Amino acid sequence: MIHNPVIPGFHPDPSAIRVGSRYLIATSTFEWFPGVALHSSTDLRTWQAIGGALDRPEQLDLRGVPDSGGIWAPTLSYHDGLYWLVFTVVRTMTGAYKDLDNHLVTATDPAGPWSDPVYLNSSGFDPSLFHASDGRRYLVNVNWDHRADRFSFGGVLLQEYDHDRRGLVGEPEVIFASDELMEGSHLFERDGWFYLILAEGGTGFNHGIRLARSRELHGPYETDPQPLLTSRDDPRLPIQKAGHGQLITTPDGEHYIVHLGSRPVAGATEPRSPLGRETFLQRVRWDADGWLRLADGGHHPYVEVPGVEAPQEPAVPEEPFRGPEWVSLRGPVAADLDSRPGWLRLRGGESLDSRFQQSMLARRLTSLHCTAEVTVEADPRHFTEMAGLVVYYNTTGYHYLAVTHHEALGRVVGVISKSPAGIVEHRWHPADPGPLRLRAEFDQLRLVLSAGDGHRWEADLDALSDEIGPPLRFTGTMIGVCVQDLARRRFTADFTHFEFRAE
Fold first, then answer.
1. What's the pTM?
2. Does 13 participate in catalysis according to the annotation?
3. pLDDT by residue (tens digit) across 356-393?
4. Which is catalytic among the residues 13, 31, 200, 224?
5. CB–CB of 450/459 below 8 Å?
6. Is 296 a catalytic residue?
């Protein structure tokens, strides 16, 4: 059996393909670098991170992008011996306007290197590349309409892509429009039909997947009267926000939909999903009328799904601070793993509120019953110098267990918490010189932070959740280490023995 989620933690907007016996999933990364997280599997059950496709600064510059801006909804495809990846970079996302660019990169191996980006258009997000049976290629994306008297989601745009010319050709046209909120479109052919698989209802609790089809590429398209997948009608389901999917087919002809969803904390007063939107898988079938349906009936997502018989990929042990699970904010970080064997040295950067040059390495929180620990060695000599363990959602939501300097107390350790309501500094305690063990314990929404043998602080994850807003929040809780040098005094800190244990 396949147990959902197949990729836990912040991994939304999944796009999946099969090449031979190998399955690949690409997910959105927003302001985190490298851009576009890639996972590989041979059995649809176990997925191994293989890194980010956009791992060079010349491929991706995210400095200044807003929280939950940056990389939106990448789409993978494979054709003519190449892996194709289209994605959006969003630079404005509040109000009526969406300032964004859509790009294409290619590779002969999904592990890279991927090419430098080819600019496509800026008309709307959620791009997807369709390789037609006649050898032509087409880009589809949301037609974003900012005008006050128009529906913002102005349909699905189609335009031909010429790879020899490295650009779109001809004029774009709207091939499908709806009074419902439709996005995340993928186009494919089957039995003489052109199908659009669409994300419906926005990416919150009204989310879903619906199909439309036409005998002609350019339409008109008829809409399936039933949703393929949604959890909008039952808030008791363990998987909520189910939607934004793509179809994959096994070598034996079995069909699956990969989709996003969230797992709100059970029993919370208000819905809270600190892990963000994760990646799930459902088995589907074609019915007699030519529409996709969940193989086991209904339209609600299943936690357990029948799997396929295939060799399982061996697990790759995670290497602290080096593995593909480790990411940084908006660009590469000045990380030194060589000068002191067994230790990570980080040079101080800007504050945790910065959208430009933070110095942080973090990994996704994948469980709400877990413990993270790290040892820090730092000697701050000024209150502008800090280092420690951070539980981070974005610039408006974090808990920071930090070592810093106090004029009267010397080296101190304490907690800085940020929520949309503001920032709070908790108790600061003197900390003896030398290495200091920092610890974060998670139990649902409850968080306990501790330092050394005697200092303990309690907090919660309420502000580190998708549902807190505005503005829109699309990522998930991260756990990592960071260093600040707000006065630019060349402050550094060293970290070792990072441990993450999930129950």
1. 0.97
2. yes
3. 999 999 999 999 999 999 999 999 999 999 999 999 99
4. 13
5. no
6. no
